[in-house]
Amino acid sequence: MKIHCSSCIQHPILVEAPGGQHDGPTAKISLVEWASVQSIIHRSSIEAMLTDAGLLPTGAQRQANSLSTLLAKTKLLRSEPHEILSNHQNPSGLAFTDQNASKMSELETEYESVTLGAIARKAAQLPNQPPKTTPFVQFFCCIDERECSFRRHLEGSTNLLSPGEGIETFGVPGFFDFPIRHKSAKGDLECTLAPEGNHPPHKVMECWRDNTQSTQWNKKRRLLAQLETQWETWSFCPIRSVILSLVGCIPALINMVLMCCFPTLKRKIVEQIYGEQPETEFENPFTVEESADKLARTLKNIGLYTPDKYGHCIVVLGHGSRTVNNPFDAAHNCGACGGREGGPNARLIASVGNDRQVRASLAERHGISIPDHTHFVGGYHDTSSELVDLYDLDRLPQHLVSSFSKIRRIIDEARGRNALERCGKFMLFKNDKKGDNVNGYMKVDGDDKASALEHVCT
Ligand SMILES: [Zn+2]
DSSP 3-state assignment of 375? Predict the structure, then answer.
């Protein structure tokens, strides 16, 4: 057996094993022996790289402990004050040189002067620049890559607009600078909606707007949950499972057929059984000044600091991905919300943006005036099903009620085109650039185990 160190031509390592696979029985190598060879290869590679870099002596001058002597001088802990780096995610001393927070401002300055400067100069030289448009609607979406194609299709839905109107999208970390703990009215466990490592002191508690309606809805949910639990309990019992298979085989068969072949129909039936969820309410846990400061930071970062840059409506979309039995569930949700769904954060920043007191504080403390006609709408985008839920639409201002249907159509078209693009990537459907089949493909249910099959069957 020959093993050569790939990164080190001048330090080949040759290991001869007794026999071989062609001329005798294969040698048995213990794990310790294998690890020993691996460590020799790695050490040899490191020594060769350090020698090339002039950090280790060569030939006879090299001592047996040269490498360990050099590594002993490496910093294992940072020397910066703890508070500067408390949130830094690369605590390793070996990552000190390239990933340290002290380098951050230098890197940002370099990025601003080199990269952004080059883009600005190039943009200024471009001929036939499109005429300036007034934003009809603006979208704040998360910077996660799951939202990139959706943003592209939102910006491309201009065929629904009048001349001179435009659609703008902005990438913002999906917690929208409002780190919160969230407790839903449905009784779900409290969760943190903030980047990993945060322990937000502010808690958003949802409650029902209409107690009578919510009581009836909760009774129905409880009853259905008890039925499901009983079904599961019976299925584990040797005697009752026989009765269940005799009595419940027909409903189970119908459920399986619906799930496999008609997932959208099944979703509609379930929605009809459960009924529509009652509206909820919450209070902003941040003070007016805190809210204004946080909102100002986001608006300044994306360049919305003068009234002429605002459209009539700003739709803020948190995102997530609802799947079943998926061990990578958190990876598909919003990274800025700690691997959870960012809908509540979007709803909170929309509420803050519509608050007259916050707007007054924003103008006073930060010089940012949001026009009176601009209204924020919070929402949630499910990237597995392309469903978009919009919150608090009953609170739309009068001037936006009629034009909001156009915003709905823009979102629906982007959902459909995005679904088509994703289907094309999974070879489930040839991407239809004309969008003729958009409406048929966007009604997909990511909650259902058979949602992918629906793409094929439709
Ligand atoms: Zn996100």
Answer: strand
For the chain, the structural domain boundaries read: 1-74, 134-209+280-457, 213-274
Q: What percent of the chain has pLDDT over 90?
A: 36
CA of 104 to the centre of ligand 1 (A): 22
Dump pLDDT digits (tens) for 194-225. 998 889 999 999 999 888 888 888 898 899 89
Q: Is 400 left (phi over 0), alpha (psi -120 to 50) or beta?
A: alpha
pLDDT tens digits for range 43-96: 888 888 888 888 877 776 677 667 777 777 777 665 555 555 545 555 454 554
Of 222, 334, 309, the C-alpha closest to 274 is: 222
Ligand 1 centroid distance, CA of 386 (Å): 15
Q: How far is the CA of 262 from the centre of ligand 1 (A)?
A: 31
Residue pair 355/286 in contact (Cβ under 8 Å)? The answer is: no
CA 333–ligand 1 middle distance (angstroms) = 7
Q: Which of 23-32, 84-93, 111-120 is the least confident region? A: 84-93
Q: Which long-range contacts (CB under 8 A, 24 or more apart) does 67-76 make?
A: 67/43
Q: Tell me the CA–centroid distance for residue 157 and ligand 1, in Å.
A: 22
> Of how many residues is the chain composed?
458
User: For residue 440, is pLDDT > 80?
Assistant: no
**Ligand 1 centroid – CA 396 distance (Å):** 26
- Residues paired with 166 in a beta bridge: 135
Compute, in angstroms, the gap from residue 141 CA to the centroid of ligand 1.
Answer: 8
In sequence order, which residues have a C-beta less than 8 Å from that of residue 345 and are 6 or more positions away?
174, 175, 176, 178, 180, 193, 318, 337
Residue 256 and residue 453 in contact, taking contact as beta carbons nearer than 8 Å: no
Sign of CA dihedral 406, 410, 415, 419: positive
How far apart are the CA of 318 and the centre of ligand 1, in A? 7
139 C-alpha to center of ligand 1: Å?
Answer: 14
Instruction: Give the Å distance between the CA of 235 and the centre of ligand 1.
Output: 39
Distance from Cα 149 to the centre of ligand 1, integer Å = 13
Whole-number percent of the chain with pLDDT over 70 = 79
pTM attached to this predicted model? 0.67
Cα of 328 from ligand 1 centre, angstroms: 15
Cβ contacts of 85 within 8 Å, gap of 6 or more: 78, 91, 100, 101
For residues 245, 248, 253 and 255, what is the CA-based torsion angle, rounded to 10 degrees?
-130
97 Cα: distance to centroid of ligand 1 (angstroms): 29
Express the helix, strand and coil content of the chain in percent, nearest 5 each: 50, 10, 40
Instruction: Report the alpha-carbon angle 302-307-309, nearest 5.
Output: 45
